[in-house]
Design brief:
mainly alpha, three-stranded antiparallel beta sheet, 368 residues, 52% helix
Length: 368
């Protein structure tokens, strides 16, 4: 190996049949189906099935009644811990020892429990759990999620969450998905792979940026001048959140779908978001005419999640709920690959040298 690709950017590590982010065309397809055809037409639980099985049926089942026992005050930490505990609690066996059918069943049970754990964590420990009979009256997985969290489900809030979850369900080889596949390649149980993927969301560079868009929208609403706000922000050398993407060379298709959803639902921030988006795109084009800096998924995710009354500290856990679909599909695909992921590193450290050169080394003992 003569060259090292920092961050593995551009390195092809897998052949996958799951999703195709079309960077030139600004499209995202799940097993050949454009997400623009899915959102608002096919519910999230069926999209989970499409990604994992290539078929809408049977899809993702309802969560089993199972209490969240880890309560740290951080929903992401709670769901990561609770997922890891499912293997000993439910008897999940290691992937290397089970059939594809058993692995798929484990993934479905664990995936939907991730949603339940987020809802239970968001509800807090000071409030009694919502009766299971009330949860069972919901007609969709997003409605069950909201009912378990709030005790009721606003239909429009459920539509907003459904659209967001479908848009964020899968996006190729990102940090969390790569983590899930690496763990799955060792033959570990599915709960360990899912829990590890959640851990990859603990940093701000993957999964949590939509919360930072809300501050910009607040600032523009307060100042009342989107163009001046954008120019002042860029003049100070600060970053516009929600624009540009490492994959797409055109508009992020997920942003397009969520913009449509925001307008269909009458999201209260849709107008100010449009004004900020228009001002930002114009200013970015004027300052960087050689770069394509279009709107990405973070921008309109913030608008849609805010419409559904999701507080910013739950944006990353909501992303976790969405991405269990893609993670599950990749875990199952990696199981079938049946090969340990073991990349090579190029050593660039010191040449062979004596121990005495190391700082702190003790001088050799001298005999009598």
């Amino acid at each position: 190996m003569t060259e090292v690709q920092s961050g593995l950017e551009g390195v092809v590590a897998f052949a996958t049949e799951i999703a195709e982010p079309d960077k030139e065309g600004g499209a995202l397809r799940y097993r050949g189906i454009d997400i623009e055809e899915l959102v608002g037409t096919v519910p999230f639980e069926k999209v989970w099935g499409l990604l994992v099985d290539g078929s809408f049926d049977p899809g993702l089942p309802p969560a089993e009644p199972w209490p969240l026992t880890v309560r740290s005050g951080d929903a992401r930490v709670d769901v990561q811990s609770a997922l890891a505990m499912l293997a000993p609690e439910w008897g999940f066996r290691q992937l290397i020892d089970i059939s594809d059918e058993e692995a798929r069943d484990n993934l479905a049970r664990a995936s939907v429990m991730a949603l339940s754990f987020v809802a239970q964590s968001a509800r807090g420990s000071g409030r009694p759990p919502v009766p299971q009979t009330a949860v069972d009256q919901a007609t969709s997985i997003p409605e069950r999620f909201l009912t378990r969290w709030r005790g009721e489900a606003d239909p429009n809030h459920a539509k907003a969450i459904d659209a967001y979850w479908i848009s964020a369900a899968e996006h190729g080889m990102n940090a969390s998905t790569f983590t899930a596949r690496v763990i799955a390649s060792t033959g570990a149980d599915v709960a360990a792979a899912l829990s590890g993927a959640v851990g990859a969301l603990s940093g701000p560079l993957h999964g949590g940026a939509p919360s930072r868009v809300l501050k910009m929208l607040d600032d523009v609403e307060r100042e009342g001048d989107a163009e001046r706000y954008v120019k002042d922000l860029l003049d100070r050398g600060e970053r516009l959140m929600g624009f540009g993407h490492r994959v797409y060379r055109a508009e992020d298709p997920r942003a397009r779908v969520l913009r449509r959803t925001a307008h269909e639902l009458g999201a209260k921030r849709a107008q100010v978001a449009e004004a900020l988006e228009e001002a930002a795109l114009a200013e970015l084009k004027a300052r960087k005419p050689d770069r394509v800096l279009a709107t990405n998924v973070e921008f309109w995710s913030a608008v849609v999640l805010d419409y559904a009354d999701i507080p910013p500290d739950l944006f990353t856990p909501l992303f976790t709920c969405a991405r269990v679909a893609g993670w599950s599909a990749h875990i199952l695909e990696q199981k079938r690959e049946a090969r340990l992921i073991r990349p090579t590193a190029k050593y660039v450290g010191p040449e062979p040298r004596p121990l005495a050169e190391v700082r702190g080394a003790q001088p050799a003992a001298v005999g009598d």
